[in-house]
Amino acid sequence: SRWIALDHWTFSLNFSGSTPSVQQLLQEKQVLLKFGGIDTFATVTLNGQKILEANNFHRHWAVAVKDLLVPGNNQLIISIRPAMQERLQLQEQYPYTVPSLHQFGQMGVYNFMRKPASGGQMYKLTNGSSLFASHIKAFT
After folding, report:
1. Considering only CA atoms, which of 130, 115, 116, 139 is closest in space to residue 35?
2. Which three-class secondary structure state does DSSP give residue 43?
3. Are 5 and 82 spatial neighbours (Cβ–Cβ below 8 Å)?
4. pLDDT digit of tens for each residue in the chain (140 aa)?
5. Omega before residue 45 within 30° of 0, cis
6. Which member of 16, 25, 63, 79 has the greatest number of CB atoms within 10 A?
7. Contact yes or no for 50/43 (Cβ under 8 A)
8. 12 in Cβ contact with 44 (< 8 Å)
9. In angstroms, rounded to a whole number, what is the distance separating the alpha carbons of residues 67 and 54?
């Protein structure tokens, strides 16, 4: 079986900009889309425009999106890249050797990423997606 952290993951949501709740949001001065628990390296787009480049599981993000919402179909996409590949690239780019503890079954070199160090990270993807869904409920 393949380890879940080695794959790319894409979460998407299509929603109508003509619903009463979205129309009400558009009357506000500012519309923020909030994210938490994105594990760990991800690109977020709304209607084809990049709105966030996430690199830290422990951080919460807020992005102003009012100008990107349209009256018709809107599409939000979160593309999560494998943390192990990302951290290897960051480690290779760094000019010095960084000591790190490496235990069997762990990624090691957490100095290059902000991610949960426990072996339960596959559950974080599920939690991240449900957090993600809870922030979108205002649109549907």
Report:
1. 130
2. strand
3. yes
4. 566 667 888 999 999 999 999 999 989 999 999 998 887 789 999 999 999 999 888 889 999 999 999 989 999 999 988 877 777 776 777 777 766 665 555 555 556 665 665 543 333 333 343 333 334 434 43
5. no
6. 25
7. yes
8. no
9. 21
